[in-house]
Design a protein that fits this description.
The complex is a heterodimer. By secondary structure, chain A is mostly helical. Chain A has five domains: about 110 residues; about 90 residues, no CATH class; about 80 residues; about 40 residues, no CATH class; about 50 residues. In chain A, about 70% of the residues lie in helices and about 0% in strands. Chain A has 20 helices and two strands. In chain A, helix 3 crosses helix 4, helix 15 runs antiparallel to helix 16 and helix 18 packs antiparallel against helix 19. Chain B is an alpha+beta fold. Helices cover about 30% and strands about 25% of the residues of chain B. Chain B contains five helices and six strands. In chain B, the strands form two sheets. Chain B has a four-stranded antiparallel β-sheet with strand order 2-5-1-6. Chain B has a two-stranded antiparallel sheet with strand order 3-4. In chain B, strand 3 and strand 4 form a beta hairpin. Classes of the chains: A mainly alpha, B alpha+beta. Chains A and B meet through helix 2 of A and helix 1 and helix 4 of B.
Chain lengths: ~400, ~140
């Protein structure tokens, strides 16, 4: 649940929050994007959008939800923004807006409100912003999460997150970061940046905070609608859906459960199939990029029994595309599952990932299978020194206890 | 679904020509480890072709529409830095920051947005030869 909604609910009294909550989730990003496109100013757009949602919280329960909530919200936000500009003498440079007549709700419908969420996400994920600022801005503007929620999700004080958002918005204005789709020659790099932000949000959630994973899937679905011809976009959605479908099986008693030991009856089969449908779409579009490969791997992992040699092969291809030693680590796990534990261990020992607890956990597991117990114990010890998440720690502690 | 073909206030405003206000940036060129003619040893290690390519790239940058070339600066080690303490001017030999971090040159670029400035900056040889280009927006009142 989103704190912004709870606040709106509190203001409008018990039992009244639902239509607004729904509209908030569905419309916040779209209304805000339209307002930013209209005003060219993040702060003013955000204030006006917030006012419009507050007005909705007050009026909709009393007067009924309007036929077209989006048009109502955009119109109201626009009129509030124009009021603010009229009242403010210091914003004289915006006087061009003063000649605009108050918009009437009837003049706006879905065919006339441009969907500018893509412009918004490309602005929020602009490489001239720090990654943490990109993530925070994306969750605030497109996701409609409150500052407090984002702060809690990333385990920083609310004041820190508020400062981060203020600075990011000021930077967009001061540095001249454009509110538009990147030109074709920049699109591949910029799209990769957008997808990286969405996937980072998902993985923050995958570590245990489910609301963030759901938010990332929502963003991924919106992107897939807005960019239906991009295989990597469909593939990222596929990947998130399939990984998320295994959520309930990933943790037991607060500890991480390995894929092989997961209770498959806890998997959300429908969601896995929805993920596979997105993967098929990505493959039909001719995709063979990193997210397509990862989604194909997620799909293979959902099979029973798993085709480990094929999985090892795809990890090899993915390692070549990404150059990532973490992917090589996964390839080693697949090799071990395919039966070649010795080769897997040799591969693991070539990887320069000394600060990564999964490397040591994997090495420990392989040593355990080779009955090299003393070395396994040392490797588990090193993994435990490095592990940050409690659930992962409990898993490792159990593994150590199980050693002979 | 009803489709309106009339232009709406939203569209009209978004397409308002005033929306594209040009930005002005100063690009500060830091040579870092990049070889320059001031550094005989590093410059001498380059082939004649490489030296010509670098000079040509700088000349081309100066001719990009919107670029106002800066005045050429002598090498950072020719700098003198002044601080005033107790009303007394203290001078030190060299730039305010370390020689490697010192400003090597600059230009002014008028462009639509930072994307154009990033593209121009990435064409400046220092950026790929071990230095970096800092993009600073100009404040206009």
């Amino acid at each position: 649940m989103v704190a912004g909604l709870e606040e709106a609910g509190d203001r409008s009294g018990p039992g009244r929050a639902r239509p607004l909550a729904q509209a908030f989730r569905e419309e916040w990003g779209r209304v805000l994007a339209t307002l930013i496109g209209f005003l060219g100013d993040f702060d003013l757009a955000e204030e006006a959008t917030q006012e419009a949602f507050a007005a909705a919280a007050e009026r909709w329960p009393r007067d009924g939800t309007p036929d077209n909530p989006r048009a109502w919200l955009v119109t109201t936000a626009r009129n509030r923004a124009i009021d603010r500009i009229r009242r403010s003498r210091t914003l004289a440079e915006k006087t061009r807006l003063l000649d605009v007549p108050e918009a009437v709700e009837d003049t706006l419908d879905d065919t006339t409100i441009p969907d500018e969420r893509l412009e918004l996400i490309f602005t929020c994920c602009h490489p001239a912003l720090a990654l943490e600022a990109q993530v925070a801005l994306t969750l605030r503007t497109l996701g409609g999460l409150s500052t407090d929620e984002i702060a809690r999700a990333f385990l920083v004080p609310e004041a820190t997150m508020a400062k981060r958002l203020v600075r990011a918005k000021a930077r967009i204005r001061a540095a001249g970061i454009p509110f538009r789709l990147p030109p074709a020659h920049l699109l591949p790099d910029r799209l990769a940046a957008v997808l990286a932000v969405v996937y980072l949000i998902f993985n923050e959630g995958y570590g245990g905070r489910g609301d963030l994973a759901a938010e990332a899937i929502r963003l991924g679905r919106a992107l897939a609608e807005l960019m239906p011809d991009e295989p990597e976009v469909a593939a990222l959605l596929a990947l998130m859906l399939m990984n998320d479908a295994r959520r309930d099986a990933r943790f037991a008693d607060g500890a991480v459960v390995l894929l092989a030991e997961q209770d498959r009856s806890l998997w959300d089969r429908d969601q896995i199939e929805r993920g596979r449908a997105e993967l098929d779409r990505a493959l039909a579009l001719g995709g063979r990029g990193p997210y397509v490969l990862q989604a194909a791997l997620a799909s293979l992992h959902a099979d029973d029994p798993q085709d480990w040699p094929q999985i090892a092969l795809l990890y090899g291809e993915l390692a070549q595309v990404t150059g990532s030693p973490v992917v090589e680590l996964n390839r080693a796990v697949a090799m071990a599952e395919a039966g070649d534990v010795e080769a897997a261990l040799s591969l693991v020992e070539t990887l320069e990932l000394d600060g990564y607890h999964y490397l040591h956990a994997t090495r420990a597991e392989l040593l355990r299978r080779l009955d090299r117990t003393a070395e396994a114990r040392l490797a588990y010890g090193r993994a435990l020194e490095l592990v940050a998440l409690d659930a992962g720690r409990r898993f490792l502690e159990r593994r150590v206890a199980e050693l002979p | 679904m009803e489709v309106s073909i009339e232009p709406t206030p939203v569209r009209l405003l978004r397409d308002h020509p005033d929306k594209e206000e040009a930005m002005k940036y100063v690009l500060l060129i830091h040579q870092g480890d990049a070889p320059t003619p001031y550094d005989q040893e590093g410059w001498g290690r380059l082939s004649e072709g490489e030296r010509q390519e670098i000079s040509k790239a700088y000349m081309e940058i100066n001719e990009v529409p919107g670029v106002s070339p800066g005045i050429q600066l002598a090498a950072p080690d020719a700098a003198t830095t002044v601080r005033v303490e107790d009303g007394k001017a203290l001078t030190t030999d060299g730039p305010f920051v370390a020689v490697k971090e010192a400003l090597g040159g600059w230009l002014v670029f008028e462009a639509d947005d930072i994307d154009a400035a990033i593209e121009l900056a990435s064409r400046i040889p220092a950026a790929r030869l071990g230095g970096g280009v800092e993009i600073r927006p100009v404040v206009e009142w």
